[in-house]
Hints:
Layout: H1 2-27, E1 37-43, E2 46-50, E3 67-70, E4 73-80, E5 88-90, E6 97-100, E7 104-108, E8 113-116, E9 121-123, E10 129-131, E11 137-141, E12 156-157, E13 167-168, E14 175-181, H2 187-190, E15 195-202, E16 208-217, E17 223-233, E18 251-263, E19 269-271, E20 275-278, E21 283-286, H3 287-290, H4 314-324, H5 331-336, E22 337-339, E23 353-354, H6 355-363, E24 391-406, E25 413-416, E26 424-427, E27 439-447, E28 458-461, E29 474-481, E30 486-491, E31 496-502, E32 504-505, E33 514-517, E34 520-522, E35 543-546, E36 548-550, H7 556-588
Parallel strand pairs: 14-27
Antiparallel strand pairs: 1-4, 2-3, 5-36, 6-35, 7-8, 7-11, 7-32, 8-34, 9-10, 11-12, 11-31, 13-29, 14-28, 15-16, 16-17, 17-24, 18-24, 19-20, 20-21, 22-23, 22-24, 24-25, 26-27, 29-30, 30-31, 33-34
Amino acid sequence: MMRSLYSGVAGLKTHQTKMDVIGNNIANVNTTAFKSSSITFSELMSQTTQRASGPNATTGTGGVNARQIGLGVKSGAININIEGQGSAQSTGNPFDIMITGDNFFVVNNGVENLFTRDGSFYVDGGGNLAMTSTGYNVMGWGVDEATGKIKQDSVAALRIMSTANMTYPPEATSKAYMAGILDKNDTDVTSANGKVVNLNFFDALGYSYTARFVFRQSDDRNQYSLELSKILDSTGAEVDISKVDVTLFGKEGSMQIKSGKVSFDTTNYKWDGKELKDGSGTVLANLDDIFKAGGNGELNTLSDKGANLQTATVQEQLDAIAKAYGYEGSTDEFLSLLYQPLDNTGKADGDALSVQMLLFNRIADTAGTATGAQTSIPVPAADAKQGDPFSFETVGRKFDGTSVAFDGKTGYFAGINGQATVSTVTLELSKLGGNFSDIEIDFSEISMFDNKGTSTLGATSGDADGIGMGRRLGDMIGVSIQQNGMIYASYDNGMTKLLGQIATAAFANASGLEKQGENLYSATLNSGEFDGIGVDVTANGGKMSTGQLEMSNVDLSAEFTEMITTQRGFQANSRIITVSDTLLEELTNLKR
């Protein structure tokens, strides 16, 4: 009788324990990443009043089973449904992360590594990724500086907002390409000023510049000259490239075939071959001021004023001469025009001379040679034999740059400087010194199709894959976390940078982990050890989702059902005690 009392008490205690488990589950129904538990019962023990006996062939009697009286119930095991995936709760916070799969985040409290499914993270004041609730550092792998890839070594705190990561360093442009249509009927192409194409690029410090190129058509409309006109900085100021002795682009002293006639404006100007005057007699230019004494056609410093004409710079005097010959605003083009000296029989005599050399030869007193060829700029009287002394025929122009050819039948690009297999030219900016780098420009994508008189030609920094485009200094504008846990920063210069990767831990028996509170677990002997390195979450088929948190996997309907059965079990065990007490009372009442 006393045994039934103790069995009832054991039943009450065990069902109370089950109620405690159910109550904890329901209390944590809204706890992030909480894993529900369940309890199983086992009988406590049994008292054997008679052991079992076997059959006796001699006496002919059969065997008798053992006689045992159970003494109650106990908690057999409390299991955690740790592998049950909770539902996703959308938060919109990019640092809230949910793991799909069986892995765990690794966090560190400064002493040891702990494990959690709670992915509610934030970036602390030190730039570290940390748990929102505890401040424990989220662990992961860093980036190998040599390769730029993740180095899966011992896990460490992920410091994603370090000073070095807040900006992306600038880079000089090293490659570029031109693409589009150069329509030979485009009025810009056929004009004396040519078709202008701008290339934007960066130096090593991230400062932006614009290189201005000019396409000019030759008499052979399948051939074009391409020259570097000027380089402008981001403020629009022109970079001084005159200090470089050789050309920065293509070849020096190239020749383009382009015939034409240059005529002097006799109505508004007077010209004796040395001084240029306007209609009122004011001197506008003096060749002695323009050219270096004892040189070979070299100009004096363009910004200096000459000794003879101190009211105008060398550039202003050259501009006045060009204007008088109908080339206002195109002084460089005027000076580069080529004239072919002819002998008395009309045959070519020597190499073609540029207008600049014709002007220089005038002050050098080389107006004619023994054969009578004209080698200086025509002026009245002395050059009366030329017929019209104020005009002359040009055969082309001299330029520093490169010649671009097209296939007249197909319209496609056909080579540079007469070489069909060459498609690139280097803009040798390194000759300027400072932070400039050379830029290799590819022309293979340009064509010469009919586009109704409109050219679409343009220049782009970088190659077709965007390599070598250069960039300015970039400020971080965002952080994103990929499904494999890799963390990337994006910058306002268009670049992205790998900052690290969130590591995860996988256990042979995740149910063997021990709860430490705060949604944390620690490894035990039965869960398996953490090796200190961890695994990529995708290695086991899992993934990470940002802007989401894992909800509790508690099933309320199941918990309430279990609560009902637990309540009934508790009531039944209480009745055992009540009935046993009544029996004891009857026993004591036998003696009145």
